[in-house]
Amino acid sequence: MVLVRCDVGSRELPYAAASELALMLGRLPGARGVSPDSASALVAMAPALSTFFTVPHDPSTDQEALRRRSQALLELATAVSEEQALVVLIDDVHWMDARSRTVLGQLATRVHALHLLIVTTGRPVVEGGGWTTPRRGSWSSRC
C-alpha cells in the first residue's frame, strides 16, 4: 500500500501529490522497468527520483510536460503493479493541486487494466457559500 497525503500547503504547488506518488512507487520492485523517456519525465516531476533513475530530467514544459508526466506515472504504476498488486490511498484529496489531479485522473481511467486500486478520502469544501463534494465531476467521484 502506498499512502499519499495532500495538504493545504501544497495545493498551489504543481505536481505535489503526483510527485509524492511517483517517489513512493519509484522505491518499489518493478520500478526499474520503466523506459528511459518515462524515467526522465518522472525525474522532472520528482527530482528526488534521480537517486533511483540515472537519467537527465525531461525539459518539456506546459501541456507537453503534463502529457509526458501522465504517461510516465502510468508506466511506473503498470511496472510496479505487474510485480505485485498495488493499493494507492490518497488522503485529503480536496487539497490536491490541479496538475496532480490531471495526472492522477489519467491513471485512474486505466485502473481496470492494472492490478491497482485507488482509494481517495476527502471532505466537502465550501464553494460559493454552500457545501459541495470535493471537485464535483472529477475523477475521484468515478473511482
Description:
The protein is α/β, with parallel strands linked by helices. Helix content is 38%, strand content 15%. It has four helices and five strands; from the N terminus they run E-H-H-H-E-H-E-E-E. The protein has helices spanning 16-26, 36-45, 62-83, 98-108, and strands spanning 2-5, 86-91, 116-120, 125-127, 130-132. The strands form two sheets. A three-stranded parallel beta sheet has the order 1-2-3, with helices on one face. It has a two-stranded antiparallel ribbon with strand order 4-5. The radius of gyration is 15 Å and the shape is globular. It starts with a strand and ends in an 11-residue tail after the last strand.
Tally the helices: what do you get?
Answer: 4
Low-confidence stretches: none
Largest sheet: 3 strands, parallel
Residues in β-strands, percent: 5-15%
The structural class is: alpha/beta
Rg over CA atoms:
15 Å
Q: How many strand elements?
A: 5
* Distance separating the two termini: 17 Å
The run of helices and strands is EHHHEHEEE
The averaged pLDDT comes out at 89
Sum up the overall morphology in one term: globular
Provide the helix percentage. Answer: 25-40%
Q: Can you list the strand order of the major beta sheet?
A: 1-2-3
